[in-house]
UniProtKB/TrEMBL annotation:
Record protein name field: Carboxypeptidase
EC identifiers of the protein: 3.4.16.-
Pfam family, one: Peptidase_S10
Taxonomic path: Eukaryota, Sar, Alveolata, Ciliophora, Intramacronucleata
UniProt organism field: Paramecium sonneborni
Superkingdom assignment: Eukaryota
Presence of keyword Protease: yes
Length: 429
């Protein structure tokens, strides 16, 4: 049953709507082990006098929590924003860290390393035309700042109607272009709202483009994936892409900076999201699951769900050249926890490039952070039942840089047990 909640808001819109559906029994019928509350819904945002603008979310309460009234003020609440730009957070939901995964036969399975063992989870599809979110307004959002306004409106409405979650400890996490979206969103939240924002987590983070293109090519050479001849070709393309930024040729920047132009022809079957894999399963089974249950998720019949929207990717061409280091500096100054995590084998957003931009921050305590030594962190390997080194971490006060061994761009997919331990560590530092 679809519930309609209508209320007056102090935002620009006079009347706003939340459409929420309790999905617990739906999932429990498909996966009897479900022992937590599940909800999906749409929140109408923006100018509703002329357009229908709806952002989709999916909510999973922490394991064993079957009612919102059981949520405690000190509970952890993660809002997950995925990247692209233009890729659905439901990809992470079903393929990375949500409690349920879909197999090739469309059967559901419980994820042993689900992050809802530690926190309540909300996955938001944004901006409009990403995943299950849509609008009747022509044109696309083109930047992280405008996109953030609608997410804040969604959360404001949701918290007004769900006081228990509003009191929980809010963390905004994501990957890839989430490393651009999230600092902008978190800065606006801190400046414009009273949300209980505690920290952000950004992985494989595209945050300071001008220093992240060329290190990827160097990393491919260092790993022995390319030879000197291919390195020269790719470096030439990378340098031309940086020149395109200076010339404000933003679409050219995207084309020239995308090493995938050369990747398949030059390297062969390596999977660029994690170079140790060949013929990688891209996890598109969840797309069929959603499209096979459109009515259940209230997805309009005229919309087909896709994991990513290339039109949004291109619409954000200029945005993809803008640094968000000032936003990260602001969050650190406001004593918001900033947790940067990175897969060792990611060649979409390279380890070298991310570590480079972290060291360019202007936060007043960065000189002291730089002096700290990296330390190793451990996890229990479920196959051997032995403690193993998961990666390294460098921390000082609010800033943490965590590297995960043998992980690529989707760290929780590649190293689920280590990533689960990483989240535990985040909550405890």
């Amino acid at each position: 049953m679809l519930f309609f909640i209508i209320f007056i808001t102090l935002l620009d819109v006079s009347i706003s709507l939340i459409y929420s559906k309790d999905q617990t029994n739906f999932y429990k019928n498909l996966l009897p082990s479900v022992n937590y509350y599940i909800e999906t819904g749409y929140v109408s945002v923006g100018d509703l006098t002329k357009y229908e603008n709806r952002l989709f979310y999916s909510l999973y309460l922490k394991e064993t929590i079957t009612k919102k009234t059981e949520i405690k003020p000190d509970d952890e609440f993660i809002v997950w924003i995925y990247g692209g730009p233009g890729c659905s957070s439901q990809d992470s939901n079903f393929n990375e860290n949500g409690p349920i995964r879909v197999d090739d036969d469309q059967k559901l399975h419980a994820r042993e390393t689900s992050w809802n063992k530690l926190a309540h989870l909300m996955y938001i599809d944004q901006p409009f035309y990403t995943g299950m979110s849509y609008s009747t307004k022509e044109g696309l959002i083109t930047n992280s700042w405008d996109a953030a306004d609608y997410v804040i409106e969604l959360l404001t409405q949701y918290f007004q109607q769900n006081k228990e979650l509003a009191k929980a400890r809010l963390h905004i996490w994501g990957e890839s272009y989430g490393g651009h979206y999230i600092p902008v969103l978190a800065e606006k939240i801190k400046k414009q709202t009273q949300f209980n924002l505690v920290g952000i987590g950004i992985g494989g983070s595209w945050s300071h483009p001008k220093v992240q293109v060329l290190p990827t090519v160097q990393q491919l050479l260092n790993y022995g994936v390319i030879d000197q001849y291919r390195y020269n070709l790719m470096m030439k393309s990378g340098i031309e892409s940086l020149d395109a930024i200076d010339n404000k040729e933003f679409e050219k920047f995207l084309i020239m900076s995308d090493e995938e132009i050369f990747f398949n022809d030059i390297i062969g079957p390596n999977f660029r999201y994690n170079i140790q894999y060949y013929d990688y399963d891209d996890g598109e089974q969840y797309e069929d699951f959603i499209n096979n249950h459109k009515q259940q998720f209230d997805l309009p019949e005229n919309i087909t769900f896709y994991g990513c929207n290339q039109d949004i990717y291109m619409a954000f061409a200029e945005d993809q050249t803008i640094s968000v280091l000032p936003q990260i500096d602001y969050l650190l100054q406001q004593e918001i926890k900033v947790f940067v995590f990175q897969g060792q084998l990611d060649t979409v957003v390279s380890l070298n490039g991310v570590e480079y931009w972290v060291n360019l921050l202007k936060w007043k305590d960065l000189p002291l952070w730089k002096k700290q030594k990296k330390s190793s962190w451990k996890f229990i390997n479920p196959k051997t039942k032995m403690e193993e080194t998961a990666g390294t971490i460098k921390s000082y006060k609010q800033l943490h840089f965590c590297m995960v061994y043998n992980a690529g761009h989707m760290t929780p997919t590649d190293q689920p047990e280590a990533s689960f331990q990483m989240l535990k560590n985040y909550f405890n530092i």
